[in-house]
Amino acid sequence: MGNEFKDLKINGIGQVAGGVYGKIVADGLATLNGEVVCESLTANGTLKVKESVEAGKFRMNGTGNASGSIRGGELRVDGMLKVDGSVKYDEMDINGMLTATGGITGENAKVDGGMKTGKMQSLSA
User: Fold this and answer.
1) Is residue 2 domain-resident?
2) Which mean pLDDT values do the consecutive 10-residue runs of the chain (125 residues) have?
3) Which residues pair with 33 in a beta bridge?
4) Which of 21, 78, 85, 120 is the most exposed place for a label (fewest CB within 10 A)?
5) Does residue 53 sit within a domain?
6) Count of domains in the chain?
7) What distance in Å separates the CA atoms of residue 46 and residue 76, rounded to the nearest whole number?
8) What's the predicted TM-score (pTM) here?
9) What is the pLDDT of residue 119?
């Protein structure tokens, strides 16, 4: 993904429909109502995802909840992230708790806290 996609910033309380974005930064309480594809997603506070997310880099600072799957290159969680679908990231750095009912797939994971899943696929730490 390159510069052809618009960036999105949410400050305070906000909602946005799904779509394709460059960088997404959410500070406060943010809700993503549709499937999102982006270069990076940084959420500081509370994030609610109603569908799936594909983000090259996904950083959750606080509490997040996704009703679909999340996937991409790098995932960092500082806090708690609950995913009702699956998690597929190459690199994961979990400082807190990651819960994925649909399973977790990845190459490398550093976990300082906990990781809970319905089924473990291929993950080497």
Assistant:
1) no
2) 79 94 97 96 97 98 97 98 97 97 93 84 49
3) none
4) 120
5) yes
6) 1
7) 15
8) 0.89
9) 61
Residue count (the chain): 125
The residues near 56 (Cβ < 8 Å, ≥ 6 apart) are 1, 38, 39, 40, 72, 73, 74
DSSP annotation of 26 reads: E
Give the pLDDT confidence score for residue 4 in this predicted structure. 81
Burial class (CB in 10 A: 0-12, 13-18, 19+), 2: exposed
CB 82 within 8 A of CB 99: yes
Question: Three-state DSSP class for 69?
Answer: coil
Tell me, yes or no, whether 44 lies in a domain.
yes
**Domain span at 72:** 8-117
Query: Which DSSP string do the residues of 73-95 spell out, in sequence order?
Result: EEEEEEEEEEESS-EEEEEEEEE
In a domain, 87, yes or no: yes
